């Protein structure tokens, strides 16, 4: 298994950016210098994350998401201060 994270990753199994093998390891996302634990999807090159918008659901019962723009730094949890990109 590699220690580099992809440019874009999603936790939704319906997404083309979903990777079950990679998501077996705990992944953290630092967004604008702050650790976020509610990230549904991220893209490093475009500089955005998607997070759930409260308890709102769409017509299929999936959580509604909001795109936030800023600096995105994904990393594997448990790394000693190192970040993988």
Structure in words:
The protein is mainly beta and 85 residues long. It has one domain (8-76). The protein is 0% helix and 45% strand. It contains no helices and 7 strands. The chain has strands at residues 8-10, 27-31, 34-36, 39-43, 48-57, 63-69, 72-76. The strands form 2 sheets. A 4-stranded antiparallel β-sheet has the order 1-4-5-6, with no helix packed on it. Strands 3-2-7 form a 3-stranded antiparallel β-sheet, with no helix packed on it. The radius of gyration is 13 Å and the shape is globular. 11% of the residues are buried. The model has no long low-confidence stretch (mean pLDDT 90).
Tally of extended strands?
Answer: 7
Question: Oligomer, anyone?
Answer: single chain
Main beta sheet: strand number and arrangement? 4 strands, antiparallel
The amount of beta strand, in percent, is 35-45%
The poorly predicted ranges are: none
From the alpha carbons, calculate the radius of gyration and give it in angstroms: 13 Å
User: Any idea how many domains?
Assistant: 1
Briefly, what is this?
The protein is an all-beta fold and 85 residues long.
Note the main attributes of this structure.
mainly beta; four-stranded antiparallel sheet; three-stranded antiparallel sheet; globular
Provide the fold topology.
Elements: E1 8-10, E2 27-31, E3 34-36, E4 39-43, E5 48-57, E6 63-69, E7 72-76
Antiparallel strand pairs: 1-4, 2-3, 2-7, 4-5, 5-6
């Amino acid at each position: 298994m590699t220690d580099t994270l992809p440019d874009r990753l999603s936790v939704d199994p319906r997404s083309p950016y979903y990777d079950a093998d990679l998501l077996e390891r705990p992944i953290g996302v630092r967004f604008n210098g702050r650790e976020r634990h509610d990230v549904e999807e991220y893209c490093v090159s475009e500089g955005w994350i998607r997070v759930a918008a409260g308890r709102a659901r769409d017509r299929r019962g999936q959580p509604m998401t909001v795109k936030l723009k800023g600096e995105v730094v994904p990393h594997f949890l448990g790394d000693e201060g190192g970040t993988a990109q």
